[in-house]
Amino acid sequence: MMHANEYIESLFSFINNSPTPFHAAANGAALLSANGFQRLRETDRWSNLSSGAYYVLRNDASLIAFSLNDRLQQGLPLRMAGAHTDSPGLKVKPNPLQQRQGCVQMGVEVYGGALLAPWFDRDLSLAGRVSWRCRDGHLHCGLIDCKRPVAIIPSLAIHLDREVNSKRSIDKQTDLIPLLMLSNEKASPDFKKLLIDQLVADNPNASEAEVLDFDLFLYDTQPLAQTGWHNEFITGARLDNLLSCHALLHALIRSDNRHNSLIVLNDHEEVGSVSTAGAQGPFLKDILERLIPDPVVRRQTLAGSLFISVDNAHAVHPNFIGKHDPEHLPLLNHGPVVKTNANQRYATNGLTASLFRLFCQRAEIPCQQFVMRNDLACGSTIGPLTAAELGVPTVDIGIPQLAMHSIRETAGRLDGWYLLRVMTAIFAAGDDALRCPEVGLP
Predict the structure, then answer these.
(1) Which helix (H) or strand (E) holds 391?
(2) Is the pTM of this model over 0.70?
(3) What value does the CA radius of gyration of the chain take, rounded to a whole number of Å?
(4) ω into 241 cis (within 30 of 0)
(5) C-beta contacts of 287-291 below 8 A and 24+ residues apart
(6) CB atoms within 10 A of CB 293
(7) When comparing pLDDT for 309 and 68, which is higher?
(8) Residue 228 falls within a domain, yes or no?
(9) Which residues constitute the domain of residue 205?
């Protein structure tokens, strides 16, 4: 098992180098490949795989990885877990550049339910996927990451808005326009041409390329940090939910390949999961149908399996204790949180929660509970979507964090390590350890 300090170093490297879902999936794939996982392509013909370890990418931003034994067709359980690769942020518009008062600005869309105020006055870089045509006329695509600060959204001086600290509102269309450069030209520059140098730097095969389109995001260049007097906290961007992705990847790699285990890292969770690569799309179902072609055996397998939806939970904020149910106050560095909701915003039930708690006990880590106040709307995860689509018993869990959906979030230093330990224990567990007791009327 990875030591706590080694875990922090690995986590920071993964998140700092994954500014977009595309980079997160690529880094996950590279980690899997380095540990003996073989890539499969959906365009190839494959089924009835031999025992081993494999992974599949979809749209360069979602990933499914699994380890198999030779008894998969016998209806033995799958240890399954899922997280998401995307985070709320600012996505670059197709025709982004506009020029006013000698300033070239870049139009962006708000992706997901982002906390907007923290985006002001931050050093922002640009990363994502670019598609281009080379001289041979063929279409290519690759990732870019500027790494350095290239944009900023300056705040309006308080002298020009004296009520900013009491009555501030943010207009997504007019206030969130990053400053990219200065120019004395009358027309805005061609944004696609501006991308060429970075594209070639990150993709040498793109020399003399014509950029056709892109999926680009802004991100904060400040790296993750350990903070607090005793380094109790970790702070940084995209803890929700790359911390969970990192834990699932490393738990799967460290699991015993004699057991059937699978992880799915979906894109587009923050915008509803309705896409070819999202949890409400067919990605996981498609892969399972290829792994277990017989529908009866597949149904047997899923009925006896467990799916763990891993997505960060709301830690109690010491300044806003009243925002939590008084009997459900998750604390930082006190272990992963089981999330429940009577209206099925989370897929947890008493049996699946008990099974997860049992694994926490066996891994000798603490476990907490969260339920939303009755007078506040509850968020959701990929858990209910996956449970409804597959009919698999599901539990929603996650580490507690503060400042969820901010450009810089806060979590406990130990909680991700706890999560890694319990997920490793689940993937390594024998078949009998996954079974819930049968429930039925006499």
Answers:
(1) none
(2) yes
(3) 23
(4) yes
(5) 287/56, 287/64, 287/66, 288/390, 290/46, 290/47, 291/47, 291/49, 291/66, 291/68, 291/72
(6) 12
(7) 309
(8) no
(9) 89-220
